[in-house]
Specification:
The structure is a single chain. Helix content is about 65%, strand content about 10%. By secondary structure, it is of the alpha+beta class. A three-stranded antiparallel beta sheet has the order 1-3-2. A hairpin with a 2-residue loop joins β2 and β3. The longest helix is centred in the C-terminal third of the chain and has 33 residues. The radius of gyration is 21 Å and the shape is elongated. The protein starts with 5 loop residues before the first helix and ends with a helix. The relative contact order is 0.14.
Length: about 110
Amino acid sequence: MTKYEPDLSLLFHALSDPTRRSILTRLAGEPARVTDLAGPTGLSLPTVMRHLSVLEEAGLISTSKDGRTRTCAIVPEALDPVRTWLDEHRAIWEARLDRLDAFVMNAMKERKE
C-alpha cells in the first residue's frame, strides 16, 4: 500500500476544484493580479481569495504584494509529486494490463489447440 503523503493530498485537494484548475491555467501564461483572476470566475473576491489560499497552501502558486496589489504566479515544479505518483501508478496498471493480455492470448491459443 502506498504510504500516506500529506503534500500529495494537499495537491490533489487543490487540483480537485474546477475554479482552482482554471486559475492555474490562467497563471500558466503569466502572473496575474488577484482582481484579474477573480473577473472571469464570476465569484466574489473573498471566495477567490479562499481558492488562492488553497493553491498557495499546496505550494502551487506564490503571491507577492506591492502596495494594495497582490500578484499571483504559478510554481510549476510543485506538480512534480503528482507527476511522479501518476507515473508510478501508470506503470503498475500497464504491467497489470500486459499480464492480462498475455493471459488472454494464452487462453485463446489453448482454446484453438
